[in-house]
Amino acid sequence: MHDMRKMNDLPTEIKLLVVKAQTLVDETRTRMKKPGLYLDLTCKMQLKNDCAEAERRIKGLVKSKNLQKDAQKLNQTVLRLKTTSENILHWSYHE
């Protein structure tokens, strides 16, 4: 989890998007470590890269000059991670 103190000044909808993104990342990582689950290397790398990309986008919001554009990119990243994790891990993430 990131240090969120710098995000206090962000608009509420962007804060909610950050929470949604971080929750999805945490849940995906937890489910990847589930005992008895076999994932091939390609699937593991895809999930890890998508999680890392979401966290990079979250960190980028703090330094953002164009907040709406970066929030839209984070939203796209979250959507990609959600789709990938649902398909690979066979679970449904509900907000």
Structural class estimated from helices and strands: mainly alpha
Q: What is the β-strand count?
A: 0
Note the total helix count.
Answer: 3
Helix content bin: 55-70%
Beta-strand residue fraction: under 5%
The helix/strand order is: HHH
Contiguous low-pLDDT stretches (5 residues minimum) are: none
- Rounded to the nearest angstrom, the distance between the terminal CA atoms is 19 Å
Report Rg.
14 Å
What can you tell me about this protein's structure?
The chain is mainly α. It has three helices and no strands. Helix 2 runs antiparallel to helix 3.
SSE blueprint and pairings:
Blueprint: H1 12-32, H2 41-62, H3 67-89
Helix pairs in contact: 1-2, 1-3, 2-3
Key words describing this protein structure:
single chain; 95 residues; mainly alpha; 0% strand; elongated
In short:
The chain is mainly alpha-helical and 95 residues long. The protein has helices at residues 12-32, 41-62, 67-89.
